Amino acid sequence: MGDDEGAILGYRASLALFKNNVLTLGNLATSYKALKQYKKAESAYKMIIELSPGNVRTYRQLADLYRIPELGKQDEIPSVLEKGLVHVPNEPDLLSYLAVYYQEKGNVEKAISYYEQLLKVAPQNQAAQQELNKLRLKE
Question: Is the pTM for the entire model greater than 0.85?
Fold first, then answer.
């Protein structure tokens, strides 16, 4: 309801009782991010990954957090997503994120590689096919 500081107090109290509650940790991370307490949000996301390594959404959220310039961790985005792929191989969301990341960075070779992997597991993804076709024209 817009009271992230109050929510954080509630989430922390809940975690005192139920230490490893992934849902509460996710809400806590979201509130920390809203208050620009990025290091605390990062810690919460990392804890979720440790507790639930198959949680694809959290890898994406941590990667999104690392896009924030103040953190200076944009170069860590690929390792976060690749770690996710170790636990959830061929996950389309993670493959797509990596393909777009490398495309934005101008690394055509890696972008093509991830788009190709994505299309092997999600051949119906027309947007990925279109981006792959564009990138192949640049080679």
Answer: yes
